[in-house]
């Protein structure tokens, strides 16, 4: 054992609503301080020394992950206009290469591309490896081609702070234009290809302004198309698949508003509001032409908890609403995509994603049926207004990522590609099923279980369990395949997902019951899931590790305080563990936007008291036998600042927690390191710690 870094105590007094809190580690927030950097580097050195005995296992796990991946591979080409667009990877390269090849008139069947075989007529649009050269971090943001296919737009981030620089290339001669737009969010071409529409952020990292840049003009001459002044609302924009409207969308966690600009007219015209914002009403829209009339299809929750779909005249969007799909409790409508002759509907029922085809003439929905008990499916990769095929993505805990196309004439699902898993993978060797835990208030909480069959059914005898949870923002942890996960399943670990309240798995009420002044349900649900796994004989406390990231990291911190005896270890990635300090400070990135999710403790004493009762950092207690804890963070994360886990680890260590480690990536953002090999090594590091924690570290 090496001596752990002990941070100096330099108390900062925080007083709100008559309550005072002495924060001894707030000084760690000074990111540019040499002292802070030295402390983080000392934490990294300590973590590396403590886990040095796992270096061999880490390398083994990395090689296992790498050995299962088809390193030289290609995506299924997607047709847009006269070109097939695809990306490919090459063995030894960290990043993807984005390409295209010419399409044949009338042929909508994507060409079959073979790994390692040159593609006839290939045009390399962007090589991520060349872009990343000389940089420790690289993230590709926007990527767009003009409608006439002559221009390429892309944006890059080399810090991890999610501020991107936009550049443009003339695809006829390969020359990069002098146009360069820094500090952007999203970006895309205008339909005529002569301009770029992009967003910028305010000082709190909130996307708030939409701009128009004309190619060949100074950025200082760019035209402001729209500005959202309300600090609780973010701004985004896009063009309908019909290429008829520019949609400008504003949204908070609970309210939205959308504006339209008719692209046949002046782009700089004043956008027209569709439905004026009303607190608590969310909606999204798409455009279709039905019986010769421009119609807007609007998915909304106005007196419809799980949302309903209506249609309105595009010329009078605040006029008569025709109900297309009425509200149905338990059927959470998620999205609608309009095409020329039909629309797709994505919804959730009984905890699973569903996809259906909507007939404009009859309002009937025809479901696309899949045969696994647990799966994820969605519409993706369909840029064209009209195509004889509809592309779908599909996966499950045991089925690798799969691309299907639905033949719209025959309704046949055509398999276009399934991600190759090398080394003889057979999905039949693994099982998946759902179990149910009973929460403290009697609510039935679903748990997804995945295991390797050769170790027997879960419950035959206690086995190591890796329990994952999130539970915020109505975000659902849906079934998905993981190559890295096979390394733990093949060693006898059962992987489990606790679908706790605060997520969206069981509909909008599931989310409502795990936010604001009901947030504790998220934490107690997770504890109930852990207790169920023990009581049912699937595992034992000394064999179970919990994991969560970001808001799921808040869950981890809360669970560490609520039920430390239930887990052998807790893995917290970019954890939101100093929640109250962050949400009290509106000058911090994204804080005001977050008030709809957590409450506003700055102006509400009840919210302050409630958040203080669960915020992990402020509830670290002496005399508690905490499990092993590994916190992973990134210095340039703008969503959950590195200071949160740094303060939490410092507090845990002083409180007597005997095995608490912090790993801080010094050049990365919220998503961690960049590059596929780097990310595999990062996951191998975490899995080695997990396997060691449950006694499976032998190589």
Task: Characterise this structure.
- With 699 residues, the chain is an alpha+beta fold.
- It contains twelve helices and 39 strands.
- The strands form nine sheets. Strands 32-33-35-34-36-37-38-39 form an eight-stranded mixed sheet, sandwiched between helices. Strands 3, 4, 5, 6 and 7 form a five-stranded antiparallel sheet that branches. Strands 8-9-10-11 form a four-stranded antiparallel sheet.
- Strand 30 and strand 31 (413-418) form a beta hairpin.
- Helix 2 packs across helix 12 (676-693) and helix 6 crosses helix 7.
- The radius of gyration is 26 Å and the shape is globular.
- The chain starts with 11 loop residues before the first strand and ends in a 6-residue tail after the last helix.
- The mean pLDDT is 96.
Characteristics of this structure?
699 residues, five-stranded antiparallel β-sheet, eight-stranded mixed β-sheet, alpha+beta
In short:
With 699 residues, the protein is α+β, with helices and mostly antiparallel strands.
What is the number of helices? 12
Biggest β-sheet: strands ordered side by side in the sheet: 32-33-35-34-36-37-38-39
The largest sheet, given as strand count, sense and whether it forms a barrel, is: 8 strands, mixed
Overall morphology: globular
Which spans have pLDDT < 50 for at least 5 consecutive residues?
Answer: none
> Which class do the helix and strand fractions yield?
alpha+beta
Estimated share of beta-strand residues:
25-35%
Percent helix, as a range, is: 10-25%
Mean pLDDT: 96
Oligomer: single chain
Rg result: 26 Å
């Amino acid at each position: 054992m090496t001596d752990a870094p002990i941070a100096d105590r330099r108390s900062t007094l925080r007083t709100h609503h008559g309550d005072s809190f002495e924060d001894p580690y707030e000084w760690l927030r000074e990111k540019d301080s040499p002292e802070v950097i030295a402390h983080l580097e000392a934490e990294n050195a300590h973590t590396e020394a403590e886990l040095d005995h796992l270096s061999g296992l880490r390398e083994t796990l990395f090689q296992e992950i790498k050995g299962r991946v088809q390193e030289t591979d290609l995506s299924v080409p997607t047709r847009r206009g006269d070109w097939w667009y695809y990306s490919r990877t090459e063995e030894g390269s960290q990043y993807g290469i984005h390409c295209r090849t010419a399409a044949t008139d009338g042929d909508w069947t994507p060409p079959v591309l073979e790994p390692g075989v040159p593609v006839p007529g290939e045009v390399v649009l962007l090589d991520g490896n060349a872009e990343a050269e000389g940089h420790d971090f690289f993230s590709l943001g926007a990527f767009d081609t003009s409608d006439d296919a002559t221009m390429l737009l892309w944006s890059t981030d080399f810090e991890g702070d999610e501020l991107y620089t936009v550049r443009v290339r003339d695809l006829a001669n390969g020359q990069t234009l002098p146009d360069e737009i820094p500090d952007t969010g999203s970006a895309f071409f205008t339909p005529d290809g002569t301009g770029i529409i992009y967003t910028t952020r305010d000082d709190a990292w909130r996307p708030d302004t939409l701009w128009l840049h004309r190619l060949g003009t100074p950025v200082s001459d760019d035209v402001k198309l729209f500005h959202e002044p309300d600090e609780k609302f973010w701004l985004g924009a896009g063009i309908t698949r019909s290429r008829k409207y520019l949609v400008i969308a504003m949204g908070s966690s609970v309210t939205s508003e959308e504006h339209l600009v008719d692209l046949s007219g002046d782009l700089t015209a004043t956008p027209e509001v569709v439905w004026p914002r009303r607190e608590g009403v969310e909606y999204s829209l798409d455009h279709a032409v039905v019986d010769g009339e421009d119609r807007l299809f609007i998915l909304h929750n106005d007196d419809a908890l799980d949302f309903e779909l209506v249609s309105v005249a595009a010329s009078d969007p605040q006029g008569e609403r025709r109900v297309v799909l009425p509200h149905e409790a338990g059927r959470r409508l998620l999205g609608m995509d309009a095409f020329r002759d039909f629309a797709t509907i994505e919804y959730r029922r009984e905890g699973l994603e569903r996809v259906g085809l909507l007939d404009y003439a009859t309002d009937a929905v025809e479901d696309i049926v899949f045969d696994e008990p647990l799966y994820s499916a969605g519409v993706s990769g369909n840029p064209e207004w009209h195509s004889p095929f509809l592309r779908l993505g599909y996966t499950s805990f045991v089925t690798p990522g799969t691309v299907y196309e639905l033949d719209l004439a025959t309704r046949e699902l055509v398999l276009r590609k399934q991600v190759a898993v090398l080394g003889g993978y057979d999905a039949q060797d693994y099982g998946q099923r759902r179990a149910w835990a009973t929460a403290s208030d009697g609510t039935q909480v679903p748990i997804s279980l995945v295991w390797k069959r050769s170790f027997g059914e879960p419950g035959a005898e206690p086995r190591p369990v890796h329990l994952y949870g999130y539970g915020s923002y109505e975000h659902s942890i849906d079934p998905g395949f993981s190559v890295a996960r096979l390394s733990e399943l093949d060693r006898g670990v059962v992987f489990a997902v606790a679908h706790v309240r605060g997520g969206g798995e069981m509909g909008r009420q599931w989310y409502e019951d795990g936010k604001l002044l009901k947030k504790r349900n998220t934490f107690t649900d997770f504890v109930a899931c852990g207790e169920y796994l023990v009581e049912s004989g699937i595992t034992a406390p000394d064999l179970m590790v919990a994991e969560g990231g970001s808001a799921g990291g808040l869950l981890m911190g809360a669970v560490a305080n609520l039920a430390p005896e239930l887990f052998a270890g807790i893995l917290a990635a970019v954890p939101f563990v100093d929640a109250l300090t962050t949400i009290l400070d509106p000058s911090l990135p994204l804080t005001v936007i977050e008030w709809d999710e957590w409450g506003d403790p700055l102006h509400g004493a009840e919210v302050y008291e409630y958040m203080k009762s669960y915020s992990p950092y402020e509830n670290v207690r002496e005399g508690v036998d905490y499990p092993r804890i590994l916190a992973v963070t990134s210095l340039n994360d703008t969503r959950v600042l590195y200071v949160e886990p740094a303060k939490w680890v410092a507090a845990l260590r002083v409180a007597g927690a005997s095995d608490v480690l912090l790993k801080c990536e010094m050049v990365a953002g919220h998503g961690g390191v960049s590059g596929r090999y780097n990310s595999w090594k990062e996951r191998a590091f975490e899995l080695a710690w997990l396997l060691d924690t449950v006694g499976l570290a032998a190589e």
